[in-house]
Design brief:
unfolded protein binding; Heat Shock Protein 90; 5-stranded mixed β-sheet; about 625 residues; chaperone; 9-stranded mixed β-sheet; ATP hydrolysis activity; Ribosomal_Su5_D2-typ_SF; binds adenosine-5'-triphosphate; Chaperone protein HtpG
Length: about 625
């Protein structure tokens, strides 16, 4: 008896995109189906380590392509783990993989020109079959069960499921090819696609092909993939083309990797690692639950597709394979979680990734800059999460600064080397972007002294930088909370001004909400005022970010600083000296406070009142009141 189901709404949207917007690289459907078949074989092989009976004697793992010209079908079969009724309903129609919703939302939000690029990144998996087929039948029998199940759909909105027969465990995905996709019936075409996209799959991908002419004509089974385990070869025995092809296959990326890490550890702990650093952020890093860690093999046998214990989450962009012969083949997933052996491998991998990134920065600064602008925000998470490696991570960071031109960058080491004798600290300021940061009153003193300040504009910066106390012995300080010390002559000026302005300062104290003190500053040059904060106060940029995230961090009272050399402050002082009760003292004081908020990129608590005051001044100035 056949049951009808409807696809989950997100999947209906994905299917719509697949059938209406994906026209290029249609051949990747075969890579996706072969990869699913290979995963299914890995799963049954892994499960059989605990339960040998699951295999029922069939250890001849393979993926088979079969063509039926008359029926215009292409079938991809495997003797993997298979699916029972519930698994097939869940996996092929009900459960959308993580990140699908976020992807669809960003697709809606993106402008038309950016959409094809976004769609191209999305991992379409099984559903890519509908790029070339107008109907797909899946026949599957779960390992350990005698009952098979048939799934069928035209990809429009519904699918059917019914009981069926299948000779052994595994899955057949039968594609009823569209009229104009007949090329996928040709053995030369299939051979070429497998070579291009699935050559390194460990299990054989086989197909029956006709060989010979006339009398000698016969059908032979051909293995289409080379199944080369590149990581087992010597470093110099693998060509760049092989690396590129292997990387593309395991990552799904259409670009070549930015850097290859290939080595064999020998001695107390033996393992081989072949890792790749991508150029850009992949789809899953943007939208989905991240799959952390390289594939784990034990003597060429894949144990896990992503072994989280092998790399920390902040290196989740690194793809590749680790093969360790010191682990037992039937190692359980639980055992892998806190395994001292894996911890040692992780240490070595992390060190090698840092080294590779350092090499890339020196050998190809442009490629490193691209890598960093895409994946730097992820790497920076390590500053907060990996205390032991904080310094190495900090060493890899790139920053714009007051001295760099927009778009150009400096490193902490370069900044440190260029510090003048008198400067003892590294300064940074965090904000939305360079245009907001540059006019900040907090930077004026640094400009005057010729000291550089790092301009931090990644949202994550405000979260991780306050925790980075120093870099190779030089303290790191936030420029808005730590202004340069005054020179002796500036100190003398400050004392003089303090005496002259005392009356005004006392009059302004306690008048503004959220301001706990009003004082003078010799550090301001162009600006009339600035809002300073105590050393341990929350960064105002961080406060704004938390507000955006819907969290109310609780406002922290600030200190209003006035520039005694500024004409506006002098004018206010004159008004106050003439008549301390003049209402303009409060009104102008409020304007100075609001200016300071605007200058640091914060919002005014009462923009209406600010505008009213400003307009009154314009009218007065024009002399038509
Ligand atoms: N040949 C197969 N044998 C057994 N299960 C399969 C097979 N093909 C697909 N599945 C099941 O269907 C699920 C969905 O497959 P799909 O290709 O859409 O996504 P995925 O493989 O999980 O993700 P990705 O494509 O990102 O690897 C798989 O996770 C798997 O459980």
């Amino acid at each position: 008896m056949s049951e009808k189901h409807t696809f989950k709404s997100e999947l209906q949207q994905v299917l719509h995109i697949i059938t209406h917007s994906l026209y290029s690289h249609k051949e990747i459907f075969l890579r996706e189906l072969i990869s699913n078949a290979s995963d299914a074989i890995d799963k049954v092989r892994f499960n059989s380590l605990q339960n040998e009976h699951l295999l029922e004697g069939d250890r001849d793992f393979r993926i088979r392509l079969a063509v039926d010209r008359e029926a215009r079908t292409l079938t991809v079969s495997d003797n993997g783990v298979g699916m029972d009724h519930d698994a097939i309903v869940d996996n092929l129609g009900t459960i959308a993989k993580s990140g699908t919703k976020a992807f669809l939302e960003s697709l809606k939000a993106a402008d038309a020109a950016a959409r094809p690029g976004l769609i191209g990144q999305f991992g379409v998996g099984f559903y890519s079959a509908f790029m070339v087929a107008d109907r797909v039948t899946v026949l599957s029998r779960a390992a350990g069960s005698s009952q098979a199940v048939r799934w069928e759909s035209d990809g429009l909105g519904e699918f059917t499921v019914e009981p069926a027969e299948r000779a052994g465990r595994g899955t057949d995905v039968i594609l009823h090819l569209k009229e104009d996709e007949k090329e996928f019936l040709e053995s030369w075409r299939l051979r070429a696609i497998v070579k291009q996209f699935s050559d390194f799959i460990e299990h054989p991908v086989v197909m029956d092909v006709e060989k010979g002419e006339g009398e000698d004509r016969k059908v032979e089974e051909e293995t289409l993939n080379s199944r080369k385990a590149l990581w087992l070869r010597g470093k110099t025995d693998v060509t760049e083309e092989e690396h590129n092809a292997f990387y593309r296959q395991i990552s799904g990326d259409f670009e070549d990797p930015a850097k290859v890490i290939h080595y064999a550890a020998e001695g107390a702990l033996e393992f081989r690692a072949l890792l790749y650093i991508p150029r850009r952020k992949s789809w899953d890093l943007q939208f989905a639950e991240p799959k952390v860690g390289p594939k784990l093999y034990v003597n060429r046998v894949q144990i896990m597709d992503h072994c989280e214990a092998l790399l920390p989450p902040y290196l989740r962009f690194v793809k590749g394979v680790v093969d360790c012969s010191d682990l037992p083949l039937n190692v359980s997933r639980e055992l892998l979680q806190h395994n001292p052996l894996l911890e040692r491998i992780q240490k070595s991998l992390v060190k090698n990734v840092f080294q590779a990134l350092t090499d890339l920065r020196t050998s190809d600064p442009e490629a490193y800059r691209t890598f960093f602008s895409e994946l730097g925000p992820i790497l920076k998470e390590g500053l907060a999460r990996d205390y032991a490696n904080r310094e190495q991570i900090a060493d890899l960071l790139l920053f714009e600064s007051l001295r760099t031109e927009p778009g150009k960058t400096t490193t902490l080491a370069e900044y440190q080397a260029a510090m003048p004798e008198a400067q003892k600290d590294i300064y940074w300021l965090a904000g939305e972007d360079r245009a907001v940061l540059e006019p900040s009153p907090s930077l004026e003193a640094f400009r005057r002294k010729g000291w550089d300040v790092l301009l931090l504009t990644d949202p994550i910066d405000a979260f991780v930088f306050p925790g980075l106390a120093d870099f190779k012995g030089t303290p790191l300080k936030a420029a808005d909370r730590h202004q340069p010390e005054l020179e002796p002559e500036e100190k003398a000026l400050a004392e003089e001004a303090q005496a002259a302005f005392k009356g005004l300062l006392d009059a302004l104290k306690g008048r503004f909400k959220g301001v706990k003190d009003v004082r003078l500053s010799q550090n301001l040059v162009e600006s009339a005022s600035r809002l300073a904060a105590d050393d341990d106060a929350l960064d105002p940029h961080m406060e704004r970010l938390l507000q955006k995230l819907g969290q109310a961090p609780g406002h922290q009272d600030r200190i209003l600083e006035l520039n005694p050399a500024h004409p506006v402050v002098k004018a206010l002082q004159a008004v106050h000296a003439r008549d301390a009760a003049d209402p303009r003292v409060e009104a102008y004081g409020q304007l100075l406070h609001d200016q300071a908020l605007l200058a640091e990129g914060s919002r005014l608590p009462d923009p209406g009142a600010f505008l009213k005051r400003l307009n009154e001044l314009v009218v007065k100035d024009a002399g038509i009141h």
